Amino acid sequence: MSSHLDDLFNKNREWAAKVTAEDPEFFSTLSKQQQPEYLWIGCADSRVPANQIVDLLPGEVFVHRNIANVVVHTDLNCLSVIQFAVDVLKVKHIMVVGHYGCGGIKAAMGTEEHGMIDNWLRHIKDVYRLHKDEIDAIEDEHTRFDRMCELNVVEQVANVCQSSIVQNAWKMGQELHVHGWCYSIEDGHITDLKRTVSNAQESLEQMNKM
């Protein structure tokens, strides 16, 4: 086991040396201050590396990840990240990014028990309950699965917009846009789900459409 961990340290040193050779000022610049314009709320899936997908440097995107990119109003971890991003970093864009083929969505759509994580997946089951008629009407299993991944993003965008943090930012006139995207692991492309919300009025209109 230790040899595998040693490999990670070796790869780290090789990576740092390579980056420094390409840009001698990279780490000194990065260490001074982070000023990202983007907060990425994504899935913890190891196949979905946030800054690489949009070809941004580490200091250019602030990231929060959890199973199935869920935003819950009782999750102090997620809310703390949003508050820091909005109130301190003054990000202009919050992207809720799901991905097709999400294991968390698949687990939530099934009946198998998974232990403690079932409590977390309950939030995704609630998304299914809200959109049951649409989901059940889709005959193709793959298409139905993809649509659930999208609808989960739609609901999480609504949760971000309804948070007191975002509502207060809009109330104070702060520029802030919330977006809903879905990423495909198969081709690396992001799909814009056309759920961008930029103020409290738009947030209310989106809620009324659901």
Automatic annotation (TrEMBL):
- Extract the Pfam families matched here: Pro_CA (PF00484)
The note on the cofactor says: Binds 1 zinc ion per subunit.
One Gene Ontology term of the molecular function aspect: zinc ion binding
The UniProt catalytic activity note for this protein reads: hydrogencarbonate + H(+) = CO2 + H2O
Question: Where along the chain is Zn(2+) bound?
Answer: C43, D45, H99, C102
Cofactor (UniProt): Zn(2+)
Supply one GO BP term.
Answer: carbon utilization
Domain of life, per lineage? Bacteria
Main enzyme class: lyase
Cite the InterPro entries for this sequence: Carbonic_anhydrase, Carbonic_anhydrase_CS, Carbonic_anhydrase_sf
The record's EC number reads: 4.2.1.1
Recite the UniProt keywords alphabetically.
Lyase, Metal-binding, Zinc
Relate the protein's function as given in its record.
Reversible hydration of carbon dioxide.
The record's listing under NCBIfam families reads: PRK10437.1 (NF007756)
Q: Which family does it belong to?
A: Belongs to the beta-class carbonic anhydrase family.
Protein name from the UniProt record: Carbonic anhydrase
Q: Which organism is it from?
A: Marinomonas rhizomae
Q: Provide the taxonomic classification.
A: Bacteria, Pseudomonadati, Pseudomonadota, Gammaproteobacteria, Oceanospirillales
